[in-house]
Amino acid sequence: MKAQTDTPAVINTFNAAGRPIAPFMTDLTEKYAYKAVNKELSTTEFYNYAPYISKVEQSGDDIVISAYDTDGVVSKVEVYIDEGEIKAGDAKQRDDGKWVFTPDVTSGVHSVYAIATDNDNINSLTCVDYPTYNIIRPTRYDYVKGYTESPSSVEYNNGDDMLAKATNDVNGTTTTVTSAIPTGETTKSLKLFATGNKATANATIPISKADNPQKTLTIEYDTMFESADDAIGASRGMYAKTKEGNELWLTYFTASSLRTAITNTGGNWCYEQAMSIKNNQWHHIKLELHPNTGIFSVWLDGTMLQDNVSFVKEGSSFDTCKGAFDTLKEGITDLRFYHTASNNIENPTYIDNVKVTEVSYSEEEIIPPAKIQEATPQISIDYINETLTGFESQEPYTIKVGEGNAKDITLGEGVTTISLDDEKIGYAGDMQSFTIIKKARNADNYIDSEAQVVTVPARSIMSDDIKKSITQRKRLQFQPVINMVQQVQIIQLLQRMEKEKQVTVAPSEKDLSI
After folding, report:
1. Most exposed residue of 24, 328, 497, 504, measured as fewest CB within 10 angstroms of its CB?
2. How far is Cα 358 from Cα 219, in angstroms, rounded to an integer?
3. Burial of 144 (0-12, 13-18, 19+ CB in 10 A)
4. What is the dihedral of CA 463, 467, 470, 473, to 10 degrees?
5. Nearest to 467 by CA among 450, 448, 490, 447
C-alpha cells in the first residue's frame, strides 16, 4: 500500500457526523488508542479503529478521495453514485496515496459518497465497540458534469418589502400578517400575529425559481418575539417550500431551544440545541443548505450550532427520515414563516432582513470552435486541351455553368483536370462564366470556400482570334509592350491550329519574339 494522505494531527476520533468512532483516550505518543480493561490488573486492550474518508472532491471528470486509517492502511475505497445501493466501482490508488474514480454518468448534478475498508477488513461505516451504533449515512458530495455554477441572491430589508411579495394564510381577525413597527423600534418589520390556542399565521415569500439544481442556499434572517409577560408561549419558525409544493421544517423556536431539520415522523426532532431564547430581543439565524447532498449548517446569533450535518440525524431511522433531504432536491422556491399561538398569549413574531444567497448549477453553454473556410479555388483554363485544371484530387467541388444548376464533382486519385466537354460541366461552346466552389471537407470543422468565377470564351471567337493573330504576327514583333502572358497565349493558340491542320506553317520562335 502507498502512503496515506491527510494524516490527522491526532488519532481518528470522530466520524463524518462528529461522533466518536470508538472509545478512546487522547495520548499523542501512542499510535493506538487504548483503555484499561481491568484497573486492578492494569491490563490494556488496544482498539482496532475503523478507517475514514477525510475528503472527497472533484477534479475534472475524476473523483479524488482522501482516506485514512489510524492503526493500519486503507486497502479499498468503494464509490457510490446518486444514493445507489450498488456501488459504481472501486477507486484506484495514485502514487500520492489518494484514490481516484471516474464515474460513467450522464451530464447533470449527481451525489457521490465513498466507503473505505482497511487492512483488517473494517470499513468506515463500522463503529467497533458500539455494535448498535453505526454511521447510517456517509457524507455526500456533489459531482457535476456539463454544468457550471451560477450565483444569485434576493433580499427583503423591511416589513413593507416582504408584505408586498408575501402570500399570507390568515383570516384577518385572529390571525394577521402586517408590516408594523415593533416596540422600541423605528422601522417596520413583518409582523405575524395570532390569538387563540393553536391559531397560526403564515407568510410565504418567494426566494428562487429553482429552474436549475441548487448547490447551496444560504438563508439569513432576523426574528424577534414580542411579549408583555416575557414568556415565549408560541411556536414560531420557518419552512422551506419546493416547486413541487412540498415542505421541510427548517427551524422551530421553543422557550429554551432551537430545533432544526425537523421530521415529525416517529416523533423525531432531528436536531435540538438548548439556547437562551429571549423575548423583545432580535435573534439572527443563518442556515447553509446543500440540497443535493442532504447536509446543512446552522448558526444562531453568530454561533455555529451544527456544521455540515445530515438532514437525517444519527441514530434516527434513515428510511423513515430520508424524505427530509429528498424534498430539498425538488428545488426550494419559497420560505414560509409561521407563528402559532399558545394558551391565548398575545406575543407576535417579527421577521426582518431576510437574505438568501443561492448557487445553482446551470447547463454549460458549449461554444463550438470557429469553422475553417476552405481556400478559394485557383482553377485555370488549358486552351490547348480545353480543360479546367488546378483541382485537388479526391476533394469535393461544385461547378455552375452560367445560370445553370450547380453540379457536384470529385475527381479521382491523382486527377487534377476535367474536360470542358465532360457531362458534369456541359460546356456547349458558347462563352460562359464558370462558378467554382470548393466544398467543406466536413461539416463539423469546415465551411465552403468563396466562389471563383472563370470566364471561358466561345470556341468561334477563339478561332477568329487565332487567325487574326496569325495574319498580324509580323506586326507583333514591332509592338514594344506585349507581355509574357500574351506571348504564351498566342503560342498555345497557334500550336493548336497547327495540330488541327488549320495552318500549314507554324510560326517560328523568331517571328514571335519581341
Report:
1. 504
2. 9
3. middle
4. -90
5. 490
Give 192-220 pLDDT, tens digit per residue: 998 877 889 999 999 999 998 899 999 99
Residues β-bridged to residue 432:
456
* Contact of 106 with 58, CB cutoff 8 Å: no
Q: How far is CA 358 from CA 65, 210, 215, 238, 246, in A?
A: 27, 10, 8, 18, 19
For 279-313, give the secondary structure using H, E and C.
Answer: CCCCEEEEEEEECCCCEEEEEECCEEEEEEEECCC
pLDDT tens-digit profile of 18-41?
444 433 333 333 333 333 344 444
Q: Is 469 helix (H, G, I), strand (E, B) or coil?
A: helix
Structure letter (DSSP) for residue 164: H
Instruction: Name the residue among 174, 261, 258, 248 with its Cα closest to residue 223.
Output: 258
Q: What is the pTM of this model?
A: 0.61
- In the chain, the amino acid numbered 133 is Y
Residue position matching grid coordinates 476520533: 13
Rg (Cα) of the chain, in Å, rounded?
A: 42
DSSP per-residue string spanning 17-78? TS-BSS-----TT-SS-EEEEETTTTEEEE--PPPEEEEEEEETTEEEEEEE-TTS-EEEEE
* Class of residue 194 by CB neighbours under 10 A (exposed 0-12, middle 13-18, buried 19+): buried
3-class secondary-structure state, position 466? helix
Q: Is residue 224 a contact partner of residue 185, using CB atoms and an 8 Å limit?
A: no
- Cβ proximity of 285 and 295 under 8 Å: no
Q: How far is CA 390 from the centre of its chain?
A: 49
Which distant-in-sequence residues (6+ apart) come within 8 Å of 124 by Cβ?
Answer: 15, 50, 51, 52, 53, 67, 115, 116, 117, 135, 138
CA gap 129, 35 in Å, rounded: 12
Cell of 301: 446569533
